[in-house]
Structure formats: C-alpha cells, structure tokens
Prior knowledge:
- The protein has 196 residues and is an all-alpha fold.
- It is 61% helix and 0% strand.
- The protein contains seven helices and no strands.
- Helix 2 packs across helix 4 and helix 3 packs across helix 4.
- The longest helix is centred in the middle third of the chain and has 37 residues.
Amino acid sequence: MSTYILGVDENVPLPRNATEALPPMDAREELEVRARTIKLIADLQGKTLVPDEKDKEQARELAQKMLNDPVTNIDFANYRNETLAYLAGMVAQYDQMLVKDLADYKLYVVNKLVEQSANPDPKYSLPAIKALGEVDGVDAFKKRSEVTVQVKPLDQVEKDLLAKLEKLERMTNRSQAQDIIDVDTQDVDSREDTEA
C-alpha cells in the first residue's frame, strides 16, 4: 500500500472564517451569491420563501440604499432570508427593466438620427448619416475581412510544406553566403603604430 503525502504551503495563514475566505465583492455580487445560496438551501429543504410586508419594506429600503450609493457596504447577514430573496428578485427585475429601457433609448436615438439625416443643411445631415452608419446592425463603415479556408488532402499539405521549407532553406543559405566577406590580412608592427 502506498502512502500519499500532500504538499502543503507553509506560513500561509488560513482565513478565520468563511466570509474572510471569499473574494471581495460589491453589494450586488454579494446579494446574488447569498440569494442563490438561500434558494438552494430552501429547495433542498423543500421550503418556500414567502416574504411578509416587513420583509418587502426592508427589501425596498435596501434597494433604495443600493441605488443611491452603490459602494455602500451592507451587512446582509442582519436580514432574513425572505428579505434577501425578495431584494434579489427586485434587483433582477430592475436590471431587466434597465436593459429594456436602454433598448428603447437606442431606438429613440436611431429614430432621431434618421429624422436629422433628412435635414437639408449638410452641416446637420452628414453627421447624422455618419452616426447612423456606425449603429450596430447598420455597420456601413465597419471594415470586414474574409478568410477563405481550403480543405486539402494530407498528402498535398505535406508536399506544400516541404516545398516551402526547401525554399526557406535555400533563401537562408543564400543570405548566409552573402554575409561572408573576403578580407586580406597583413601583419603590422605595433611599434610603428605607437611612434605615429
């Protein structure tokens, strides 16, 4: 029977608790982790999380605090699981609404650009047309490159590679030959150099 010894790094302090072992997170990330954990434990236990009015009110206050100051540290451990689950749902819904709002804003901007591009004054219409050309989906000014892939039999690939290698070798030999310089040598008396 073999004995296995694990390699353990020495002089590396262990975290005092699980919270200290976690990577740094902002309030939103921490809420997401806590909410997933709460849901997993509730599912494993077969319990449903039903927030009461007090939980909902606390969740609204926390959501307002997170919106007003995103860098505020909130101690989520002081709140019930139902409050955190409700808060996580509110944040997720807010994110979805924000994404929908951003899509609406993009549509509004594109419509205004189309409207402005019809302006008879080129000072206004040309920048609008340029901006429209840069909108995702239009991409009138986007540079594209095409890659053509040729499928060749393995024999042909080997022949092509060998031909390229031979050509490279010939070029290398020629460049080395050009680097060689013929030099005539002469013996010089060192006394003549010092006298001059």
